[in-house]
Amino acid sequence: MTSLLITDSVFQGHTMPAGHPERPERLRAIERALAVPEFAALQREAATPAPLDAATLAHPDEYVRIIAASAPSEGFRFLDADTSMSPGTMPALLAAMGAACRAVDTVATGAVANAFVASRPPGHHAEKATPMGFCFFNTVAIAARHAQKAHGMTRIAILDWDVHHGNGTQDIFWDDRDILFISSHEMPLYPGTGAENETGRHGMIHNVPLLAGTDGATFRATYDAKVFPRLEAHKPEMILISAGFDAHRRDPLANLRLEAEDFGWATQRVMEIADRVCGGKIVSLLEGGYDLEGLSTSVTAHMRELMKA
Ligand SMILES: [Zn+2]
Q1: Identified catalytic residue from 125, 165, 185, 302
Q2: Sorting pLDDT into bands at 50, 70 and 90, what band is 1?
Q3: How many domains would you assign to the chain?
Q4: What is the DSSP string of 59-104?
Q5: What is the CATH number of the domain that holds 265?
Q6: pLDDT given at position 89
Q7: Does pTM top 0.70 for this prediction?
């Protein structure tokens, strides 16, 4: 079966001030890496924008309206010290939601084995009603709710291997009984949440903090001991990945020491679990990853495994 790749130049229209690490070049590096013959068999699609209402799957109406009204017609508008909107931000946000929901639809119906969405801005730091950490709408949370609403799924798992804690996703699903949220992340590090004792109202939050300097061997052992057993035990009907690649050793915003191959390994393991519990249904959404070489080689390793389905 084929894998779906959704990306779009609209995601490069969201800009932040010069020197900001979350920059359009990230997607250009990914596009270059996936333009080689090895990836010719990918099913490729551009993004179709979702209606703004899609954001209300994960955020209150008023918050969604405030974000939409905050977009500047020129220049930047800062929502926090390192999170700002540009004229291209709303089109990118709508396209990111549309792409994520399209990926869920395509995988849920079995038209493709799995999907990867290379979009910006990232989403996992966006809480119910707070934009932060380069994020405005929580795309992976919206995708999870869409899978439930549009495809009648109940049990979803979200695995977040971005090096930063997915505080926004945790916030949105804190009270949920059916969505398992697993986050591994360097700790202490931005945003400061993600301790093991943060487990959610019904024990569906599973945080796996990692120490600075964690290498691939320790990462793999930790995932085998703490992440994969919990993921499989949940018996999700679909697995969503908040796929940040900033745990790569080259990343300037964090201090883990993963190699691209470690992301390939994790992808393969998630696929084995998905094959056993949900017919292989995986939708992976780009989050962070700020070193262009670390990002593009890691995405390559991730996509290479996904294509083996
Ligand atoms: Zn990150």
Answers
A1: 125
A2: confident
A3: 1
A4: S-HHHHHHHHHH--SSS-EEEETTEEE-TTHHHHHHHHHHHHHHHH
A5: 3.40.800.20
A6: 98
A7: yes
